[in-house]
Amino acid sequence: MSHAQLPLEHFAALTALPGVVHGFTLRVPGLEMSHDKAEALARLDGVHRKIRDEHRLGSAPFITAQQIHGKEIAVVNVAISADKCFANCDGIIADQPDACLGIYVADCCAVYLVDPVRRAIGLIHSGKKGTELGVVPNAINTMTAQFGSRPADLVIQLSPCIRPPHYEIDFAADIVRQCRDLGVKSVHDSGVCTACDLMRYYSYRAEKGRTGRMLAFLALA
């Protein structure tokens, strides 16, 4: 399967940044997904690994978070030699060029953070609860504390996520507002609703919980 045929999309705001590798995987045609999360991820693993391979990230440590709808952020400021999942966290920030950050979503938003000045990145899982708790502002503040990042330098991208009328609130708009309130100037929202296009995306709500997950990944080249 060629790069162009792989089930994924990229975001122009991140593609424009040199030395940044990213992607957002889509629904995999023909792969049956009416299972719990663990089984769904197991079935998707081969495709997701191929996509990371195509982006020259196959040998990079794959760093993920447990994703408990909280606001805790894991910090990767030293080299990690093996895959790792941080417990009780909903985001990861890193300044290491040898780590591939990953977040899984199926209606929640994957929020990409890039500091092109200080060469640091973050990837955050933010749904209704996480947004209310301020997980993205916590990530921005943690990048400032850990890496010296300035909000005005950050480039932030929001992935497709569920939105009204398929959901009762527009938490993506809240995330954008939170970022701007902290002084982030470059905030980009895909504006796409996952529940509106089940041919392209998985949707936890529209498919009543028996569905797959999209993988957001981000790395420094």
Description:
By secondary structure, the protein is of the alpha/beta class. Helix content is 24%, strand content 26%. The strands form two sheets. A six-stranded mixed β-sheet has the order 1-2-12-7-3-5, covered by helices on one side. A six-stranded mixed β-sheet has the order 4-6-9-8-10-11. The mean pLDDT is 94. It has one domain (29-220): CNF1/YfiH-like putative cysteine hydrolases (4-Layer Sandwich).
CATH topology (level 3) name: CNF1/YfiH-like putative cysteine hydrolases
Could you say which structural class the secondary elements and strand pairing correspond to?
alpha/beta
Mean pLDDT: 94
Number of strands: 12
The CATH architecture name reads 4-Layer Sandwich
The shape is globular
Q: Helix-strand pattern, N to C? A: EHEHEEEEEEEHHEHEE
Protein traits:
221 residues; alpha/beta; 6-stranded mixed β-sheet; 5 helices; 24% helix
Quick synopsis:
With 221 residues, the chain is an alpha/beta fold. The chain is built from five helices and twelve strands.
Helix-strand blueprint:
Blueprint: E1 8-9, H1 12-15, E2 20-25, H2 37-54, E3 62-65, E4 73-76, E5 84-86, E6 91-94, E7 100-105, E8 109-115, E9 120-126, H3 128-133, H4 135-147, E10 155-158, H5 171-181, E11 186-189, E12 214-220
Parallel strand pairs: 3-5, 3-7, 4-6, 10-11
Antiparallel strand pairs: 1-2, 2-12, 6-9, 7-12, 8-9, 8-10
